[in-house]
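User: I'm putting together notes for a lab meeting next week and I want to include a structural view of one of the chains we've been expressing. I don't have a solved structure, so I'd like a prediction I can at least talk through. The sequence is below, exactly as it appears in our construct file.
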Amino acid sequence: MSRNENKKPVGFATHITAGGIAGAMEALCCQPLDTIKVRMQLSRSGRAPGTKPRGFLATGAMIVRRETPLALYKGLGAVLSGIVPKMAIRFASFETYKSWLADKATGKTSVGSIFIAGLAAGTTEAVAVVCPMEVVKIRLQAQQHSLADPLETPRYRNAGHAVYTIIREEGIATLYRGVSLTALRQATNQGANFTAYQELKKLAHRYQPDLQELPSYQHMLIGLISGAMGPFSNAPIDTIKTRLQKASYEPGTSAFQKITSIAKDMWKQEGVRSFYKGITPRVLRVAPGQAIVFAVYERVRGIIESLNVSPSQDHYTE
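Assistant: Thanks for the context. Below is the predicted structure for the 318-residue chain, given as structure tokens.
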């Protein structure tokens, strides 16, 4: 994503390293918002006539009151173990797909090709990391036990225990429940995310021709805007996916039957607004998360480039 066309492409390991560090920073900053989002999506509040679904602040306050503030970080272990490889795969695969789609003569990539590279990167990370990670994370976040009461034992003690229990009781295929919806969500997210980020970055350079590299605060602002686009475009997919990964089903039930059953139940029992449950914390989590990710990624990548040696010992000159 460097502006300088004369630079040789940095090594694959650079994208892995910078993406992994950026992912870890995002998880540590944004996990509470994700926990609130999941609780809102799983909530059945608002079904009774004349009642409203529990809002963002009310859900967060209820978690803190009942389960202590540490409960906002439920599932963090699963997220950290997944988000570092997820971000590494996201950036490395995006740069790889983008290079494949670039014009062989000029080396430039069209807007359409960037969008396709983003779609492919989102699909890759969904299958490789995101789906199993989110099944475990959602199971942990859905447990409404108080961390202040040592006698209140949850079903899943931690991410490792959750993986073991899920595989033992439901089979390893359960970790890939909702993989089609996850892939669709991640693909649309990253298609919109990378396209917006690249185009806004070009625009920023156009208005600031003297800048060789944008400052970190501008990377954060551009990442904030691009990160907000995905959640608005695929909120219903994310809500259905969350409920699908939380629930248990009889063996032999097809993925299509599960998805249609959830969608029909939501439509009949809770109305169209239920498909957008958790949209506020999701945007508040994803948009700042992408701001952190892009700013950290660009900074770490810049540091590695300045050393003139990538983590894989690939030498290049400026």
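A couple of points you could mention at the meeting. Residues 1-6, 310-318 have pLDDT under 50 and may be disordered. Residues 193 and 226 are 5 Å apart (CA to CA).

User: Perfect, that's what I needed.
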